[in-house]
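Chain A, query sequence.
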Amino acid sequence: MEYYYGQFNGQQFPTGDKLFISGGLADFILEYGDQALRALEEMLKNPKNADQEQLLQRLLDEGLLDKDGQGRLRLTPRAITHMQHKALMEIFADLRRGQREGHQRVTPGWGGERIEGTKPYEFGDPVSELDVNATLRNALSRVATQTMKQAAQAWSDSAPWPGQSQPNQAKIAPANQPVKSPPLSGGAIKFHERDFELHQHEGTTSCSTVVLLDMSGSMMRHGRFASAKRVALAMQALVRSRFSQDTIDFVGFYSGAKHIAESQLPLAMPKPVTVHDYQVRTKVPIDQLANAPQHFTNLHMGLQLARRILRRRGGENKQIFIITDGQPTAHVEGDMVYLLYPPDPRSTVATLKEAAMAVREGCRFSTFALIEDYWGMEWVGFVDQLARLTRGISFYTSSGDLASCVMESYLSGRKKKSYIA
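Chain A, predicted structure.
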């Protein structure tokens, strides 16, 4: 059995009778990952008392845990869904209630459900979604306006000029004979392109998202990684429940980078720190990276993998969402991976270049920075650089209070800051 040590957060290790109170199991799994399942396996094999055995059996009976072919415990889809929902509720629990349920992309002619309202026809819009009533009303209004103008012009032409002693008899119609005007009905209505109105629909644009999850050694402190997984699970729940046409993938980055299956996301854990030297300057061939220290921050390789994944996805929009607590301490050059601590400008430049290439491919960036002191952390300068370069959004928050954060946006090209609580 492996042991990992970190700063004590004041919370006692949960006993069996507390695992299922107020989502205790979900918190236990998020905090300890795969080690939590192994601990539950040991408790199931050697229960200390009848209550403990009964509680563990209850997990199996309710379908929250299951056993694989080798007798090892694993999370069921039901348990993962419960954890996603719990994370979503935790992050958005304190948001103020708005006046609207949410914004939607509105497009004419095709896609989602038809909604109220119409829009003028534009070249290329499908005429199959023509709103006949609105179009007919526009045509009649236009004809009526033209008729009134023609009648006014006829009256003006028949009236005497100012200063004339005798009216122009040729222009004045007899009193008992009204000025004729084009009829409003009884004939064919000629439609103009400006008369056409189309129904509006909810947009069905799709989005492919890659969540980059920092698994470096520093994420072990202050409960940061458990908080990071809550953010990732909340995004997963949101996409699965409301945007079924979207895709979402998870990539963990450390000294290297790997794709994380959705079923394994709650069990993921950061890499333990194995080198405690004040300064590290080394390079490792990519094919031998598994034998090197794993606790560095290789966001550069994570972005490379994210770009490859997004090229295979069919979403009309592409987004990269980064959850991290520090600046890069590793990068790739050719077939070599450089592990550099303290952070080196070479890793920063390589990472920013990779982000710029992703932007050229149509990717949008959002960064969720887990920090304990927003104004005292020097590395937030890297996050600001990344947001400015990609015209993205950055969220700065404490790992202990995910529902409150400082948001900085460069979407408009200028820096805007706001506080979300």
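The chain has three domains: 16-75, 106-148+187-204, 207-420. The CA atoms of residues 283 and 338 lie 4 Å apart.
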